[in-house]
Amino acid sequence: MPALNRSGNALDEVSDAIDHVNVLKGKVWDEESEFVATKDKNSFRQYDTACERVKAFYKEQHEKQTVAFNIKARVDFKSRKRARMGIWQAMEMLNTLVDDSDPDTDLSQIEHLLQTAEAIRCDGKPEWMQVTGLIHDLGKLLYFFDSEGQWDVVGDTFVVGCAFSDKNIYPETFAGNPDTYDAIYSTKYGIYEPHCGLDNVMISWGHDEYLYHVVKDQCTLPAEALAMIRYHSFYPWHREGAYMHLTNAKDSQALEAVRAFNPYDLYSKRDEPVNAEELRPYYENLIAKFFPPELDW
Fold this sequence. Notes:
- The protein is an all-alpha fold.
- The protein contains 13 helices and 4 strands.
- It has helices at 9-23, 34-37, 52-64, 67-79, 87-94, 109-122, 127-135, 142-145, 207-215, 223-231, 235-238, 249-267, 276-290, and strands spanning 84-85, 159-160, 202-203, 295-296.
């Protein structure tokens, strides 16, 4: 496994700031959750009052997530293995992403993953959904491997290769993206066919896409879990209804899964830490049901 030669503090600062704003944004598996019902969902995603760090992050992300970059990122992903390790080892690696300068939380990355999984578990959701909550942010390991900064790891995702939706956060910042002026990429369907399905479009590269491509052929998780992993940051779609002209019937099922998962990611954060070592035996047993001892990253 490669040595870590980047500090995670800068990434975590941006990621936590985005998560903080997203918390201001607002079943067993297919029914209304008791956990969600107890949460205040009156004021969601207040980007107008977000800190300048979040606004600057999205400006950079929207300017740099081009078709050319996304093709390159996928080619680079397929070109080599970055590490070989198990899920819990990956969680411990991700746990170096602790922001000592964040005044709002002292929680580690492992604690966020465990809090998400525990909220799902306490709501009586199936084991596959619990383990999905446990691993959903492991794609942030991309920051240590191939990322060019923070803009290709965290933040809301969106479709590239067609016109950028005005339902994206800060849509005006796409003015700095050269694809905005491309004769094909700037059209409604761009390089895609109507209702071709999200499997056939490029979602902006980041921790969701990276983790999806890592685990999809190395686990026995159901399709709903893979959708939760791949699209949990795709807020323009699962919250705002954007890009529906590209979706198909399969995506309707994925949408239900992502909407069922999303509240656990957003609302599970709390100041009280979890006991990782106490919970570890339960979750390692759960991991073994769906994953081999080691995965290629």
